[in-house]
TrEMBL record:
It comes from Providencia alcalifaciens. It holds the Pfam family AAA_21. The lineage of its organism: Bacteria, Pseudomonadati, Pseudomonadota, Gammaproteobacteria, Enterobacterales. One of its GO terms (molecular function) is ATP binding. Residues 173-281 form the ATPase AAA-type core domain. This is AAA family ATPase.
Length: 387
């Protein structure tokens, strides 16, 4: 069974430092992955090369492009279930469209009989950074063998509820590319550019057109599976550290974040330690293996939480010490305090301290007036008890 430890606290309370210290302490004895959603830190930090360095990417388009490129690195044709699970969680169709476009083309050299040239496609600006501008001269035999292959786009459709015949075709196309690269004596550079398309309710669109939150969640699911699959037989404890997962995520996805992690983890046993400012992550406390903690003198200290709480206002006040404007939970909470005091379950000092703490965290004058009134009621209840 997975463990989920949610760390909350104000900025500067030491949440990120705790994650970094945990990573540095256990990276040699455990399989530890550090997932940060800050632009100044890598998405993943572990020994295998599945990482995205966001340093310097302060322009949103660069940040977005780096994640779409990272998707291509993470995509694993042997683990489509994880991809389809993530797509369905986001509300997309469990289908991936792939188009492999050749970066080079075979052309005949004018005035040179039986000589052919492998030249980079000039009409697509995206190919500028893909390898050298040409890969040399080749014979007619080479031309006849590979012309159709290297000069043609190839499309594949991978779906959850289909026979996925295109999977074998895609694998064959990739194997043919390896043979091609051996024949040109260059096995390092890719010869095709992959373009990915997703769909929602049958409407197909380019992967580059999805939101930053969508591409992040898509990469997150694949990243976690790559980490777990690459360390499957290590026999060591697996820990995934996640810093501020709420960035770019809609509140609906924040609330379902723990459920998403549980689904993408599958049957692996993983300890998750998550630092967050989001109250929505703490609303998933249906799992007995989830606990909420805060940093105290550099160590974790558990926070007692009302397991039946499903009110965002209650969680803000109970865990984050934030009193939201027009808080409907406030009157119920104060009434509960007065009832418990009148029944002798809590002391007057306890109620008074709670009221004072709420006055300190509210910025709403009406709430302050209301809490002053609650204090007056407390005194009246005390007088009635004492006769």
């Amino acid at each position: 069974m997975n463990e989920y430890n949610i760390i909350i606290g104000e900025n500067g309370s030491g949440k990120t430092r705790y994650l970094i210290n945990h990573y540095n302490e256990f990276q040699k004895s455990e399989d530890v992955d550090f997932i940060s959603n800050s632009l100044t830190m890598p998405l993943g930090r572990y020994k295998n090369p599945f990482r995205l360095n966001g340093k310097g990417n302060y322009i949103s388009n660069f940040y977005h492009s780096s994640f779409t490129g990272y998707f291509s690195t993470l995509f694993d044709i042997s683990d489509l279930d994880s991809l389809f699970y993530t797509l369905e969680f986001m509300g997309f169709d469990p289908i991936l469209h792939i188009e492999r476009k050749p970066i080079y083309k075979l052309i005949k050299i004018k005035n040179l009989e039986e000589r052919y040239f492998l030249e980079k496609q000039k009409e697509d600006i995206r190919f500028v950074h893909f390898g050298p501008s040409s890969l040399g001269y080749y014979s007619k035999e080479f031309y006849d063998r590979y012309y159709q292959y290297i000069n043609s786009n190839k499309k594949f459709k991978l779906g959850k509820n289909t026979l996925n015949l295109d999977i074998e075709t895609l694998k064959l196309h990739i194997e043919d590319e390896k043979k091609f690269k051996k024949d040109i004596k260059d096995i390092r550079r890719g010869l095709f550019y992959e373009e990915y398309h997703l769909s929602k309710k049958g409407v197909i669109f380019n992967l580059n057109e999805v939101s930053s939150g969508e591409i992040y969640l898509l990469c997150l699911g694949l990243h976690i599976r790559n980490f777990l699959n690459s360390n499957f037989n290590s026999g060591r404890k697996k820990t995934i550290l996640i810093d501020e997962p709420e960035n770019s995520l809609h509140p609906k996805w924040q609330k379902g974040y723990i459920s998403f992690l549980r689904g993408i983890t599958k049957y692996d046993k993983v300890q998750y330690i998550i630092a967050t400012h989001s109250p929505f992550l703490t609303m998933s406390n249906y799992d007995t293996h989830m606990r909420v903690s805060e940093i105290c003198d550099g160590t974790l200290r558990g926070i007692e939480q009302n397991s039946s709480s499903n009110s965002i206002e209650e969680i803000y006040l109970e865990l984050f010490k934030v009193l939201t404007p027009k808080n409907r939970y406030l009157s119920e909470y104060c009434n509960d305090l007065l009832v418990k005091f009148s029944n002798g379950l809590i002391s007057k000092n306890h109620v008074s301290n709670v009221i004072d703490s709420m006055i300190e965290v509210t910025f709403d004058d009406d709430q302050k007036d209301f809490l002053d009134g609650v204090y007056e009621l407390l005194l009246k209840v005390e007088r009635s008890i004492n006769g």
